[in-house]
Amino acid sequence: MKSMAEFKVPEYILNSSHYFDAILWVYVHMTVIGLLILTIGYSVNDINKQKWIATLLFLVTAFYVYLDFRSADWIYGNALYKGESSIIPAIIGLIVNLLFFQLVIRLFTSNKFTMRNNDNKLSSR
Fold it and tell me: Alpha helix locations (H) across the chain?
């Protein structure tokens, strides 16, 4: 786990089979979540369901952002991971979170989406 060495994680932890298993689980988990988001995004056509799914994803990513900023090495973090680069995952998460936020705002405030011929296909006026 050389990628974590820059965050000054102790060597004995980096060499642990438990740590390797946990990191592997995290990467698989994040890949599955990404695939679920894509699948849901392409398959849900009902505007009301899109609103609530976008809201849920905004809230979930907000929690992830909180966790990333909490453990980063900065004035408000606990510096679980050391170094300036420990803030980068939090910033990336914040960008993703803001993308979901703008989607929620657009879905809840826009009246330009209407149902066409009651066939569950969205069209723009």
Answer: 2-5, 11-14, 17-43, 47-71, 88-109
